[in-house]
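Extended Data, panel c. Modelled sequence:
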Amino acid sequence: MQRSTYISTAAAVVLMVGGPVAAAAAATSDAARTPSSAATEAARADVDATGAAEAAVKHYPGTVESLDEDGAVWHVDVIGKNGKHAELTVDTRSGKVSTEHADDDDDGDNAKENKQLIAAKVSAQKAIKAALAAHPGQVRSVSWDDDDNGGARSWEVEIQPKGGGDTKNVHVDATTGKVTVSSSDSDNDENDENDD
């Protein structure tokens, strides 16, 4: 009985003295092995619109027709070099690309629109860059706008401004790269000011 008391007391002393020392040593060795939180955050950065477009055309060579962020994925439509239309998803964390659907989209009006899209001097990626240069923020969607009324062909880019606020819808001319704010946004801004 006395022997078990000595053993229990010795074990308690070892745990009291050795516990904090062992915990400190373990924390020191973990800190040496764990990358800084800044590096971890950088490694987990989301795939932005440009990254999604580049990943999509690397997976399915062609021209981006549209892309749209939807939760944890980007939906990207690509007109392939082979004339086929592909619907892809790009994971916003990993950048992994999956083909959802691919078909021959080379009929009638689509064929004409696809040729105009492919021939455009300003690609979706260039439109994103131009839109962000004029209106810093995060792109939420990009789509090709083939105006049936004979107007200039352009890209519609939706941007969430830095620091929050209402999204901006901008147009990027597919020939010149000129950026203009959508007239509907300007009208809404003016109406908001008149309501005050």
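The longest strand covers residues 62-70. This feature is highlighted in the accompanying rendering.
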